[in-house]
Every structure is written in C-alpha cells, then in structure tokens.
Design brief:
It is a single chain. This protein is α+β, with helices and mostly antiparallel strands. Among the domains are: 58-67 and 139-294, Immunoglobulin-like, CATH 2.60.40; 302-397, no CATH class. It has ten helices and 23 strands. It has helices at residues 3-10, 16-20, 33-45, 70-76, 80-86, 130-137, 186-190, 234-238, 261-271, 329-332, and strands at 58-59, 97-107, 113-120, 146-150, 153-162, 166-174, 182-183, 195-196, 202-206, 209-215, 224-233, 249-257, 285-294, 302-306, 310-314, 318-322, 342-346, 351-356, 359-360, 362-368, 371-376, 385-390, 393-397. The strands form five sheets. The chain has a ten-stranded antiparallel beta sheet. The protein has a five-stranded antiparallel beta sheet with strand order 4-5-6-11-10. Strands 1-13-12-9 form a four-stranded mixed beta sheet, with no helix packed on it. A hairpin with a 3-residue loop joins β5 (153-162) and β6 (166-174).
Length: 398
C-alpha cells in the first residue's frame, strides 16, 4: 500500500480553527522548534483514524433502517441517550480556569523546566427536555443500535442525527480487557476532545465526518466508554471532488492492527522505501471491517441575515455563519479579531450564549476562511428564535 494513502487512512485533516489556535491561552514566550514541531505533529496525527479508500469487507449492519420516535427511545433508555448528547445529567458546569504544563524539551533562563499555561473556557449545560427533543427532531434521528465488532472491541452506534453541515453521533466502545484506544480526560473534553492512542492496535472512524469526540466521564468505566461525536460533513467542507455526499448512511470502519500505531509508523520507515507498490495492508492489519450505519433525512434549517454580518443557517443541532455576504471588509478578509460573542435570543426574551471570550457552550466549533460552524451542547429551539446576535450585529429570519 502506498504510504501517502496510508497517511490519509490514519491522519485526520486538521481544521483551520485547530491550526490557528494550537497555542491558545499560552503565555507570551518563544517555543522551541522541537516543541512546535512536536505539537503540530500531535495535532495532525491525533484524535481519530481516517478511512482507507481501498476495498474492504462490508459488514451488513444489523439491518433495516428503523427510525423510532425519539421520545419513545429516550424513555426506553431512561433519558440517557439525549442527555448524553444535549443534557446535563452527567455533564457538570465548568468555570473558566488556568492550567500549567511543562514544555517538554525546553528550559527557561534559569535552567528549569519551561512551563506554559492554558486558560480553559467556561462551559454551561442545561437539562434536556424529552418533549422538546421530540418536537425539534421528529423522525430525523435514527436510534436503532448498530453493533460493530472487530477483534476484542465492540462499537455500538446508539443514535445519529444530521443537518446540512454535519452530524451528531452517540456510541459506546467496549473491551473486556479495558478500553485503551482513546486518550481522554475531563481537560480533553474541555478542549479538543479525545484522540486515538498510538500505543495500542485498534482504530476506528467515520468516513464522512471529522470533529470532536466527547467522553462521558461519569457514565464511562474502564471497560466501556460512552462517547458523543460532533462532526463536520466533509462533503460540505471540501466538496464532492474530495468526499461524496452523505446519503442514507454513515460508514464506520474498525481496524485491528498486528502492532501498535507507533510500531506501524516505524515499520513503514523501515520497509516502505524499497517497494514501489508500498507496504501491503496484510503486513500491518490483522482485521478490518466496514459497517453501514443507517441515517435519516437532514433536519430542516432556518436562515437569518444581517447586512453587516452576512448569513447564518441554523438547525436544532448546529449553526453556520457565512460572512461572504457581509458589507464589512474586515469580516470578508477573515477572522483576525478576538473571538466573537454569539448568542441566540428567543421570543420570550431568554438567551442561549453560544460563544464568547471566556465561554464555549458548544459541542464543537470550527472556524474557516469564510465563517464558522458551531455544534450546540444543547438543542436550539428553532421554533422560537427571535434573532441571533454576533457582537453588535443582529441577524433576523429571512
């Protein structure tokens, strides 16, 4: 197999937001070249596996597309499913706080380990009301569990919902000997999310999306992780020349390697250069399967506009701000200012503060050269939005 293709398989595309904000909150000092190179490499390699374009065995996922009423499914799970995605049952509010870290490979002027600090944002969660979930999602969320197994690992996809720009997926990961495929923690949840552990041999990923994995620290155990993944639709981001459109399913690929990921990279370094055809998959992979995950139609969305600010398209799970129609040249030229304040104002006067200088009430947020996309950490009541406000710009329904 060609190594470049294998890199596509294991290395995710880093988002513009992540690249621009690699050193968010870091004190103003010069990093070593070794540190910066290592950090960029980490950001480009971590998080989740990308999927091979080569032929693979496709496991017929447990069957037919059955879109159960969300309210019924939520009741059957004791309210757990929707709470995991948009509630506060196991998510505790977090105040903004500062953490210090030792910068590996760098010393300060006194010869001591160099220390840098990161300021983590304030995060607030709200209760998930099953009646609101049923009203806002209707029959657009598939909640038929799909069980996917490779080697010692079982990944069960519990629920999927999508809109024009992305997807939200709830799933669990199980392994009797202990789940060690992800690096996760409370601080990871507060920042970039969980990522693939390079010192083990199991990898997984959805072909169609990329974003942030949130691990439920309260519900999860050593042998079972409860995960929520907020993903941008890669077709929406990069176009059909690079990724096909999402239709009626997601594609989940699970791979068990014959070695750890770190050992695999070393193996490539030692064996790939002398083979025009590249290293065959069979030399590094023990088992690989692709599973089809049924999904429903996209959620409906509303459009809000502002002469100065451009256009916002919003669904109950996410919003996308596009500044290309803005009359402000500074907006059209890209995001160079401090992070904007974004809030949704409802008809009864209540507000949902989505994003601010010290606050991130989102599941995932990603900037681009023409705006940003935010996946909510609660459902937005699109039936009752009066306006959306970004800094001093008001967006009203088109």
């Amino acid at each position: 197999m060609d190594r470049n293709l294998y890199k596509d398989y294991f290395i995710r595309d880093i988002s513009i937001e992540e690249f621009d904000h690699i050193t968010d909150g870091v004190e103003d000092h010069v990093f070593s070249d070794e540190y910066l190179a290592g950090k960029e490499s980490l950001m480009r390699n971590e998080y989740k596996a990308k999927i091979s374009r080569l032929g693979v065995k496709v496991a017929a996922a447990a069957a037919a597309v059955v879109v159960a009423t969300p309210f019924v499914v939520n009741a059957a799970t004791g309210g757990e499913l929707f709470d995991r995605l948009w509630g506060n049952g196991s998510k505790k509010n977090v105040e903004s706080h500062v953490e210090s870290f030792v910068e590996e490979g760098k010393k300060d002027k006194n010869g001591n380990d160099s220390v840098y600090t990161i300021t983590y944002p304030k995060i607030e969660y709200v209760e998930s009301d099953p009646k609101d979930v049923a009203r806002l999602l209707g029959d657009k969320m598939v909640t038929t569990p799909v069980v996917c197994k490779v080697g010692e690992y079982t990944v069960t996809v519990d629920g999927v919902v999508r809109d024009e720009r992305g997807l939200v997926v709830a799933y669990t990961i199980e392994r009797e000997a202990g789940v060690d495929c992800l690096i996760y923690s409370q601080l990871e949840n507060e920042s970039k999310g969980a990522f693939i552990n390079d010192d083990q041999n199991f990898i997984f990923g959805f072909k169609e999306g990329s974003g942030k994995i949130w691990v439920d620290m309260e519900r999860s155990t050593k042998t079972k992780l409860y995960c929520s993944e907020y993903m941008q639709d890669l077709n929406h981001v990069f176009g059909p020349d690079f990724y096909p459109p999402v239709t009626d399913h997601l594609t989940l690929e699970l791979t068990e390697l014959k070695m750890t990921r770190n050992e695999m990279w070393k193996y490539f370094d030692e064996h790939n250069d002398n083979r025009p055809e590249g290293v065959p998959e069979s030399e590094v992979e023990k088992e690989k399967k692709t599973f089809i995950i049924p999904i429903a139609d996209k959620l409906n969305e509303l459009e809000f506009t502002s002469t100065e600010g451009g256009t916002i398209k919003i669904s109950p799970i996410a919003m996308e701000w596009d500044v290309r129609g803005s009359t402000k040249a500074s907006l059209r030229e890209g995001f160079t200012w401090p992070r904007p304040t974004i809030k949704i104002v409802y008809k009864d006067g209540t507000e949902y503060l989505v994003y601010a200088a010290d606050t991130e009430n989102v599941g995932y947020i990603c900037e681009s050269d023409h705006g940003l996309t935010a996946f909510f950490n609660r459902l937005a009541d699109t039936d009752n939005i009066a306006k959306i406000v970004i800094d001093d710009m008001e967006f009203t329904k088109k």
